[in-house]
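1st attempt posting a full record on here, be nice pls
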Amino acid sequence: MDLAGCRPADCRYNPWIVRASLVPVVLLAALTFFAGLGRGAITDSDEAFYAEAAREMVESGDWVTPYYNYEPRFQKPVLYYWLTAGAYAVAGTSEAAARFWAAMAGLGLALLTAVAARRWYDESTGLLAGAIAATSFGYFALGRMALPDLPLAFFITLAIWAAFVATLEREDRPSRWVLLSALGVGLGFLMKGPLGLIIPVMVVVPMLLIERRSLNLTGRDVLTGAAVFAVVALPWYLVMWYVHGTAYLESFFLADNFERFATDRFNDPRPWWFYLPIAAGGLLPWSPHLLLWVGPMLGALTRRRDVGAIETRLVFWAVVPLIFFTLSVGKQPRYILPILPPLAILLAATITERTRTWRGVGGGAFQPRRSGGLVFTCLLSGALLVTLAGLLYRAQPLFINVPPIFTWVAVGVVGVSGLLVMAVSASPAWRAAPWVLALAAALSFPAAQWGALSAPGEEPVQQMARLVRAHRTGAEVAGSYQVFVRNLVFYTGVRQVDLINEEQLRGFVGSPDRVLVVLPEHALDAFEAAGGPRLIRLGDVRYFNEAGLRLRTLLWPDPERDITRVVLAANR
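the predicted structure (as tokens):
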């Protein structure tokens, strides 16, 4: 019997219990994904592609072909552009609208993780699994960027879980779950392409062979699921093929998918172990709890411990995508987001087992002795938050757009939260430490963003856009070189030229017409020192690239290295 006072089989389908259990998860997700969602300019990273392409979709009225910088963008499918353009149409163009659906996907993943864990384990495990998903750094970071990766992770998670329920459990109406899984696959395919289909198939089909259960499905169920996938996923691709011919299919399916996986054209090669620290980082501050698996893993390997069917599914669900992306040449940290839900469920089950109140045959309650392993991992998690506070304090000189009081408050919130986790972990109330950690993370992550990574007013790219508009007296062409390459167009609303190298820069400013160029001051100085024409400096801003923040930057902050002065210049 679980902490809610009912067996999972008895209370699984009670909608009132389900809704009540999800309230804490929703509250935590509201902090991590939505508090201050519009704070911070659209970064000079991939999120600018999606934010700007959606803006141009609304501006042009063309809801079929995505455009970025007023040129066709074939690299990704259309669903995230549609969702964001719809948010713009309803609420206006803004950073919050650009990121809204990524944040909604974060909330959806937390809820879906909670519901799946509750079905497979019990009320307590479901609640904690949802809290872990809602307060993991990987989901927090991607839930605040206008990217399709978190929505893709949601659709993949939905597809895999629904497929497991439909095929490996005894459901009276499995066809409903088949349709739900097919819908997840179709929307994932429309969100980011073949991965929305490949990952669920790679996880589910081998598990069917491993468990060797007779499927409670009919041929009609399978055909209906295939039809749902086709109706959801394929029409837009067919329209794009009709409008743009085979050029689109070759660009997207061959270049953007196959070459991205099999070659280093888009991403530099990375070592085979690249995703292991990325997965651990994505689970922060819950990563130390992975140490709790050492004993059970050794027991399973030596056959001193049986591994249940649910554990096997979850392990397979996490490991197969990890191996798949490890085999790829072009690795990106956010590709492995779909492995976090099964890891969150396994962690929640492990933690709950060590904190559970048990009831004997006679109904009497008793609590096992203190779990030294759990206390230790909670202490480590609290120490990580205290360390984060120290790093924020150390890197304060870099946060040039944030008032110092904001940084001081962030340091205090993060540091006190970590100390509170450590204090509870070492106290007689140690069983509450995981929940204190969840609340600490939900407070610490937004505090760190507000206190370090987002300004309360105009940020440098917005200031530079205002300079460009002020000095663009006619139809002057604007170019960018090494800085604000992707996000400046979102704020100027004017097509710009991306200058890749110094040769292109020289040809651009050598135009007989007046042109504007945005570039780092050190690059301008080097260009002029190498014999390039002297340019007229019209204005400048100081810039710290938050999107390029790395652990090295926090450990060894150097304003001279990390803060750039960006110049707007003209050739005449």
